[in-house]
Amino acid sequence: MKFQYLFLLLAMFSNVTCSYAQSEQGTLHGRIVNAEDKPVSGASIAFQNTTLGTITDEKGQFSLTGITPGSYILTVSNVGYIAYTQSMRISKGRNAFLNLQLSESNQELKEVIVSAAKNSYQVSSSNSSTRLDVPLLETPQSVQVVSSAVLRDRQAFTLNEIAGTFTGMKANNGNGSFQIRGFTAYSPNDASFLLFNGIRGNLYLWSQQPLLYNIESVELLRGPSGALFSEGSPGGVVNFITKKPLSEKRASVDLSLGSWGFGRASADFAGPVSSNKKLLYRAIIGYDRSESFRDYQKKQNLLIAPSLTYLASERTSLNLELNYTYSKAVQQYDNGSYVYSRPDGTFDFNHYPNNLTIQSPTDYGKTHNASATLSFNHQISQNLKLTVVERAVRNVLDYTDHIPVGRIRNDSISRGFQDWETDRFSLQTTAFATYTTNTGPLGHQIIAGSDYNRYGWTQNDYQYKPSTRISILHPDYAGSIPDASVPADESDDNKRITNLIGAYIQDQISVGDKLKVLLSLRYDNYNGKETPLSDRDNKQGDELKTSGWIPRVALVYLPVKNVSIYGTYLKSFNPQTSNNVLSGGPFPTRQATQYEVGSKADLIGNRLSATLSLYQINYANILTAAPTEENSHRQAAIDGTRSRGGEFSVVGNLNRLSLIAGYAFNEHELVSTTSYGKKGDRFANAPKHQINFWGKYVLPSQALKGLGIAAGVRYVSDQVGLLSNQNFVFPSYTVLDAAISYSRNRYQVQVNAYNLTNKHYFTGSRSGVTLAGLGDPFNVRVGISYQLW
């Protein structure tokens, strides 16, 4: 597909959606006030048993469009007020203006939890991109949200298992490496590509799959997002929305069993602690263990996540969230499966059996992760709100591993041994104020804030030594752990502290009801230093001092209420994570510039949301692997690449059918010839085409009430596995999944089958042509959920 065809598709999409929006649906407008006739902003307006809903603006006004004519039950609720319900009939066209008055609750505050329907795939709003609670329709960026209903129906327990549900995203391997818009997002290189509730501080290291026990929904913000979040992957950032304390008592348990000895159990308890419901709690615990279709690989995870919310008053709340995870594994970092190199320079991806691994059964990984997040929110006045967040994260890793050295020869390979202990931390302070005002005919939603992030490690004890050569087909692991007396070829023994100070301001300007302008500007200053702790550190440290401006300019135009057209200009700069001379440094700062245009529409009575986006990202000074026989850790900053493409995604609920689907096209290429490649070379792990679909249908028969069937497909076109070798190309693959579920009262039983055709496929590479990430073969999971109350 040619790139210019996507622009034609954008124009066609806008015309079609505009034409559809003009069909005869109903609209409802109104205003919500309190007993003193003052507007109630932020009130939730919803039709029961539908996905139709919105919130009131600062004037207490709301607007709902695209309503299918018929009878509904309207619910209006807000913190500190008694919920109001009313039966009403919606006719075609504009219905009578609705004026409602909410009565204050007898309690000082009664929290109202507003969330998507339990079974809804569609999420209508997110405040992650702009930190404003605005509909996705009015957000000038491509944002996709995977709801809790999708996580449940997919039986997805880690980010890796849900990555392919996002349009244009995939997991590169069985650990913490992901591809978004042609770029690899990987924890050591992009420390903040994983956010929690919009705040920096990744709970998981790169050797782990992020867990979803305590996650309500997962958001993908495509493109550079540095205007609010500082550094991150140029392809996008992933934001986890965690489960929060509830004002109503609730408890559930989940059990799952599956292939390769998989077992999982979790419990979720929530409710009020105090009788006046000012103090709320939530406690989540989860445990899983599993083996693999690969030899010797075993792992187990434990997560404990308690949280408290104190509703001090109608205007003030305080939330404390704690997370602790423990991971223990044999071969924690899966180095991948063997790839056979033919004499003519081509590759055979089916030559070696799936179960073989270069690692030894003595390899292990033990990780302790902990985080604490304290959030303070105070509504200073009707137009001014203050938010302060403190987040602390600590990761402790004890890890040994075997890696390949050189090429496979005569079905044998030399190996190196890594022994690593590290203690890492992140201390983040974020404070910002949101102010709503008007200047003449213009409306303003202004955010001004600052960040202070102190992060790094207090210990980084790493040693690399030569290990034994093994036969691939008949490995002998005797003597694979080098003696302590053997000197290390490479050694780290250091600490590193980096201080990031940032400040930003953003103004979303409303020009009438149809046009919105978003202007953002951020300034970041980095100051870091790596300090050797002994003479054994053969890199002897490096320093980081850099600063820069990050602008964002965006426009959103709504020709009709349920259709928007947007354009965005984004820039970012990211400091390199390493400037060590041994790795090839010092390196220049990474720079990204993105241009994006798109269109969004809420269709069929707002039950279906569609997004079409076209983008180009120019990225300079990418730090990429450039290993040599002498130094497998060598890196290089490439002069520049260009990633361009388009995405189309759709999500929603059509009566008994729920679906999430999309298509992504991407070309990520070098824009100049260097010693590491020539102009036009494809970037590693960046397929040109990706298709995703997942749909669930609930049967209408009364006799089969509660029975649902689901199916999905993931297609990934061929992809280059290594930038420096354009002949190392992974074949395309198509993976089919399916599920069947039955819900009855408080129970749900579910069976998921993955990779129905037992497709043998590779997902991505690390830094060479010897090993590559191997996709899971056919496997099954059975899950049982029970709602205690």
From TrEMBL:
Signal peptide (UniProt feature, chain positions): 1-21
TonB-dependent receptor-like beta-barrel domain location: 321-756
Keyword Iron part of the UniProt annotation: yes
Entries under Gene3D superfamilies matching the protein: Carboxypeptidase-like, regulatory domain, TonB-dependent receptor, beta-barrel domain, TonB-dependent receptor, plug domain
Residue ranges crossing the lipid bilayer per the database entry: none
CDD domains linked: ligand_gated_channel
Membrane topology label: Multi-pass membrane protein
Top-level taxon: Bacteria
UniProt keyword annotations, A-Z: Cell outer membrane, Ion transport, Iron, Iron transport, Membrane, Receptor, Signal, TonB box, Transmembrane, Transmembrane beta strand, Transport
Protein name per Swiss-Prot or TrEMBL: TonB-dependent receptor
Protein species of origin: Dyadobacter chenhuakuii
